[in-house]
Recover the amino acids of this structure.
DNA sequence: AATTAAACGAGACGGTACGTCTTGTCTTGGG
DNA sequence: CCCAAGACAAGACGTACCGTCTCGTTTAATT
C-alpha cells in the first residue's frame, strides 16, 4: 500500500538490502514540477510527460518509481505536509472553544485556492482508485481525525462528555459535514458554520446531569 | 449551469424558440451505453468513442450536446434517477426509527457495486470541475438532503426537537459522516454505524425538558 | 459521361415532361460560389458544405445534381468558358508568327494566379478519376487542341507543311511541352520559350524543297 | 525541399551529431504498406491511418517523419525507383532507333495498371502542392529528362543534329506529348504513336545538308 | 584509480483517445 | 411538396500522452 504510493523507501530507510541508488535531486525536481503544474493546469491536464519535461527528467525516471500521476502527487503532497501535523489539538479546558479555534483556522486553510488544487486532485483520484484512497486517507487524513478523537477522549475523561459516547463517530460528526461542504460544494465554509456545527454536535455528546 | 450538463432542453420544453431538433432515440441509446460501459470498465476507461460505438451513434452527436463524458453520465444518471426520489421520508412519528430505516436502506444501496461506479465517477469528476459539481449537487444530492431537512422540520414542529436547532446542519450531521465514509473509505458502512450515528445526532437535536 | 458531370440536362432541354423543377437561380449561385471559393481557399479546402453555405442553398441540392465537388467545378468552369473559345486561331499567312502570338497570350493567361487554382484543381482531380478527366478533356481541352490542328491543316493545304505530317501529333508537339511545364513546373513559361518551341517544331513540319 | 520529403538522413549519413535514431524496419514497412494500399484503393482513399495499420506502426511514427501522405508516397516511390535509372540511354549510333526502343518500353511500362496508381497520385498531389511537385520533379522526373538531353547531345556532337538545336526543348518535344497523353488521357499510348512522334521530332532537329 | 552496474536524460516506438472536420444521407418544418 | 437548414452515422484528420523500450552518459560503490 504505502509501497505503491511511496516506492522503495528513501535513502534513509536502512534495511539490509544494498540500498537502491537514486537521485534525490530528481525526486525533488519531480515533486516541485508536479505541485507547480497541478496548480497551473489542474489535475486532469497534468501529465507525466509534462512533469518530466518541467523537472528536466526522463519519463522513465518517473515510471521507475511511481505507478501513476496520482501517486507522484500523493508523495509530493505528503512530503510537503510531513512538516507540521504532529502537535495535537490545543486543550485549554474549554472543548467548544478549542474546537472552534482549530476549525476556524482550517476553514481559512481550505478556502485558500493554492491549497485546493492538489488536494482536490488527490481526493478525486482516490475516489476511483481504492488503493490510492487508502494511502491518502492513511497518510494524510487519518492522523488528523485521530487528533480530534484524542481531544474528545480527553474531554470525556475530564467528565465533560457522556461516558457512552462513540468518540470516532463524534469526530466524524464534526469533520465530515465540514469536508463534505468543501469537497462537494454543498454549502459555504464559514466561521459561523463551524461555530454552529460545534455547538450542535457537542450538545449531543455532553454529559447530562 | 444545468444548461451545460443537460443541454438544450428536450422537444417538449415549450419556449418561443423554434425548438432545437434532435433524436430522442440517440439520446436514450447514449444513456444506456454510458451507464453500461461505466459499470463494465469503470470511469477512467470510459471513453466517448466507446459510448458512441456502443450506442451506434456518431461521436459528433455526443460532442454536439454534451461537453464531457462526465456531463453525459450526469444526464444519464439523472434521467435514470428522476423516476423515484419524489416521495418524501416516512413519518411514523418515531423520528429515530424512521431515520434508521431509511439510512439502513441507503447503506445497502451504497454497498451495491454496480451502483457505485457511476456515482463515484461523478463525484470525482465534480471534485475538479466546479460547474459539474454544482449540477451534480443541485440535481442529485440537494433534493435528497432536503428530504431529511423536511423530516426534521416535521419533528421540530411536533415538538420533538429543540426549536433552536439548525435543521440544515442537523441533516448534514447525519448525512455527511455517512457519505464521507463511503466516498473516502474512512470507515465501514454498516447498519450498526448508522444506528449509532442517528442516536448520537438526535441526542444533540432533541428538546430538553 | 457528360451525364455524370453535367447532370440531367438544364430546363431548356425539350422533353415532353415539363415537370422536373430545377432552379436555374440555384445553379448559377452554386457556380459562382464554387469558383469564388476555389480561388479563395484552393481546391483541397473547397467543400460542398462551403459551396452550399455561400450559395445560400441546401447541401442536398448540390448532391442531387452533381456527384462530386470536381464535377461542380467542371460545370462551373465549363459554363464560364463556353463564352469565348469559338473563334479559331488567327491566320495571317505567317504560321510561325500566328502560333507565337497565340501561345504568348496563353503564357500570360497561364501565369495568372487567379486562373490557375480551379484549372489545376480539375487536372489534379482528373488525374485520378478517369471519367472526370474524359469530361474535362472533351469539354475544355479537346476544342483547344483542335483549333491548332485546324490551323496546321490550313498551312499544310497552303503548301507550307509537308503533306505527310501528322497534324495531331504536330499540335501536341506544340502544346504538350507547354502544358507540361505549367502543370508539373518542369520549367518556366516565358515568351522566349514558346518562340523557340514554335521554331523548333515547325522546322520538323515544314516542307522540304 | 528534399529535406522535407526525405527527412533527417538515414543512419549512414556521418555527421558529428549523435545520429537521430530511427527504425529502418518501420521505414520499410511504411513504404511497402503505402505502395500496396495506393495500388489497392487509389490515392484519394489512401489514408495515413490505413498505412500505419497495414505497416503495424503507430500513426505518430508516420507523422513524425513525413508531413503528408503524398510525401510518404514520394519517398516510397523514390526509394523503389532509386535502384535503376542510372544507366543512360542506349547509343547504337542510330538515334531514331534508340529513342523508339526506349519510348516503346516506356509505353509498356506506363500502360501497366499497377504502376499507374502511385505515379498518378503523386502527379495529382503535386499539381496542387508546389513544394511536393518540385520534389517529385527533381527526384523522379528531371533525371529521366536529362538522360534524353544527354543522348541528344551525343547525337549533336556526332554531327547528326543541327548545332543550333535547343536540346532541352527537343527532349520536351519528345517526352511531353507522351506524358501528356498518359496523364490526361488525351490520346492512346501506342508504339505507333511514339514511332511517329520520334520521326516527326527528329525531322526538326536533324542537320540539314 | 579503474571497474561496473544502476539510474539517468532523452526521445522513438506501437498504441488509444481526443476533439474537429467532411462526407453523403435523413429528417423536420416553413414557405 | 419543395427545399433550407441542419442533425445524423461514419470515419479520417492531426495532436497529446500513454507506458515500454532502447540509446549513450553520468554517478557511486566496489574493487
Amino acid at each position: 500500500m504505502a509501497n505503491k504510493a511511496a516506492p522503495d523507501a528513501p535513502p534513509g530507510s536502512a534495511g539490509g538490502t544494498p540500498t537502491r541508488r537514486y537521485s534525490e535531486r530528481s525526486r525533488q525536481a519531480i515533486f516541485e514540477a508536479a505541485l507547480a503544474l497541478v496548480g497551473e493546469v489542474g489535475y486532469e491536464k497534468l501529465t507525466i510527460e509534462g512533469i518530466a519535461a518541467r523537472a528536466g527528467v526522463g519519463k522513465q525516471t518517473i515510471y521507475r518509481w511511481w505507478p501513476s500521476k496520482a501517486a507522484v502527487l500523493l508523495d509530493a503532497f505528503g512530503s510537503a505536509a510531513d512538516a507540521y501535523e504532529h502537535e495535537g489539538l490545543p486543550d485549554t479546558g474549554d472543548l467548544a472553544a478549542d474546537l472552534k479555534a482549530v476549525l476556524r483556522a482550517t476553514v481559512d486553510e481550505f478556502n485558500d485556492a493554492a491549497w485546493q488544487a492538489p488536494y482536490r486532485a488527490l481526493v478525486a483520484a482516490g475516489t476511483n482508485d481504492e488503493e490510492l484512497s487508502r494511502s491518502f486517507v492513511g497518510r494524510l487524513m487519518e492522523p488528523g481525525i485521530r487528533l480530534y478523537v484524542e481531544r474528545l477522549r480527553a474531554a470525556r475523561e475530564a467528565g465533560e462528555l457522556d461516558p457512552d459516547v462513540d468518540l470516532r463517530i463524534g469526530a466524524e460528526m464534526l469533520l465530515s459535514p465540514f469536508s463534505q461542504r468543501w469537497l462537494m460544494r454543498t454549502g459555504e465554509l464559514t466561521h459561523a458554520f463551524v461555530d454552529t456545527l460545534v455547538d450542535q454536535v457537542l450538545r449531543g455528546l455532553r454529559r447530562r446531569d
Residues 1-21 of chain C have pLDDT under 50 and may be disordered. Residues 47-49, 59-60, 63 of chain C lie near DNA strand E (CB under 10 Å from a C1'). Residues 78 and 140 of chain C are 7 Å apart (CA to CA).
